[in-house]
Amino acid sequence: MAHVTIHLPSILASLVGERVVPVDAASVAGALEALTARHPALGQALFDESGALREHVLCFHNKENTHWHAQGLGQKLLAGDKLTILQAVTGG
Length: 92
Hints:
This protein is of the alpha+beta class. It is built from three helices and five strands. The chain has helices at 10-16, 28-38, 41-46, and strands spanning 2-7, 20-25, 57-61, 64-65, 82-87. It is globular, with a radius of gyration of 12 Å. The model has no long low-confidence stretch (mean pLDDT 91).
């Protein structure tokens, strides 16, 4: 397992009380599982009913969008890696 940090936008950070959350995980999916286990309110904000990331949620492993990576959320993590969650906000 690797010690990594997950960086949250302010709208999600308001659910957990912090913008940077350290977790230990072997993969991006494992890190998101650890995050939502610790902060269950994030689960509904990040994942849809099928367990996939919601359409408007982006997850970056270091600077790479996991959506475009062949391994997706299965990417392996190394100590010191950074995950960044971005959530699109729309309105009119």
